Amino acid sequence: MNTLRQRAQSAKYFLIVLAVLVVFFGGVFVGSFWGSAQPQNISKNVNFGLFWQVWNLIESKYVNKGNLNQQQMVYGAIDGLVNSLGDPFTEFMDPAQAKQFMQDVNGSFGGIGAEISVNANNMPMIADALQGTPAQQAGLQKGDVIMKINDKSTTTMNLDQVVQMIRGNVGTTVTLSVIEPNGTAKSYTITRATIAVPIVTWTMLPNKIAYVHLMNFDQNASAKFNDVMAAVQQAGAQKMILDMRSNPGGILQEAVNISGWLLAPNSLVVQEQKYDGTVTKYYSKGPATFDQMPTVVLMNGGSASAAEILAGALRDDRHVALIGEKSFGKGSVQEMQDFSDGSSLKLTIAKWLTPNGDEIMGKGLQPDVTVASTAAVPFTVTPTDAAQDPQIQAAIDYLMKLK
Fold first, then answer.
1. Cα separation of 396 and 275, whole Å?
2. pTM for the whole thing?
3. Looking at the annotation, which residues are catalytic?
4. How far apart are CA 386 and CA 338, in angstroms?
5. Phi/psi class of residue 384: alpha, beta or left (left: φ > 0; alpha: ψ in -120 to 50)?
6. Which end of the chain is more exposed for a tag (fewer CB within 10 A), N or C?
7. Containing H/E element for 311?
8. Rounded-to-integer distance, Cα 113 and Cα 118, Å
């Protein structure tokens, strides 16, 4: 999921809406169909007439023209405009997609409460089932390979398609046909519920090492992190593993807020370089309770955005070791612009630099200690899980050498 900040500056972004162009075609004034705002600074060499020629040909000659949906055609045109930028993090979302996106950002949705990953054969599998959720109550367990969803084979589905099929309206059902790790075939019909995605969990490992698993930076992340840090302090932890493997990021300010526990006050966390060349610097503010505690960060190729911001700040400021695999390399900032019909544009408006001025976009953060991953990380990692995880073991070994 991506770093974003929502603002109400709608006037700045009218230029991205292709549908607002006022054009006459064939004597018909179509501007009223698209809207009244007009794009600015359009080159006179751009041929908008071609767009309308294609539109009219589709409407007059397409073999299934009775099935045409003009609104979806508009959304498709805007989607094409946005995709022409070649920026994977700038995205136009129709109303349904925008609603799903906000559910993910807010940390809740209709689903079954299972983390889905892929196995060595690229088949979807259950990586974890949250305690008390429909998935756990039905009997799904780690390692179950999902063969069918509602009688549809998953062999040709990508991970996103699998997740979207499993999600749905609260109260509806979904049937999963799975193969258990022992080879037994089973089928489960599960009623979807509102699922609150975990943000951060923790456990105490031997030698008073606090293992803190930070899974995303949604709008509740810093508040939840505060609770965990209070518990870690009360438990008397002496060292810390901050696990941000497969953490896709989220809201920039949440990462800055969380840094307040781990960095000295007024430490530089990140530099944001905007489209107009201005640079904004963000500094840590908080209790700095653990700014001297020996700490390491776990990361992998799924660690992105706000996770890279926090990891980069800890590395540059405190020389905290990064252990695992190279991070994703998502060093840009997106801003959400919502439109009156429920659609949204997530637009890249800036890139960020670590405190030392390193640009991460497309490069990622290189680990200080490289250890390959062996399996998906469950939501809640127990001491038993930790003992079987080579990256966690590498982190423990590193910490044990620190005073």
1. 42
2. 0.68
3. 305, 316, 330
4. 42
5. alpha
6. C
7. helix 306-318
8. 16
What is the H or E stretch that residue 224 is in?
helix 221-234
Amino acid 323 reads: I
pLDDT tens per residue across span 91-150: 899 998 888 777 666 656 688 988 787 787 889 888 778 778 899 999 998 889 999 999
357 φψ region: left (φ > 0), alpha (ψ -120 to 50), beta (else): left
For the chain, the residue count is: 403
From CA 257, how far away is CA 345, in angstroms rounded? 26
Contacts 24+ apart (CB under 8 A), 136-144: 138/112, 138/188, 138/190, 139/186, 139/188, 140/112, 140/114, 140/176, 140/178, 140/188, 140/190, 141/180, 142/378, 143/180, 143/181, 144/178, 144/179, 144/180, 144/181, 144/186
Only one residue has tokens 């022409």, namely 84
Give the other-Cβ count within 10 Å of 69's Cβ: 9
Return d(Cα 131, Cα 377) in angstroms, integer: 15
Residue with tokens 């939501």: 379
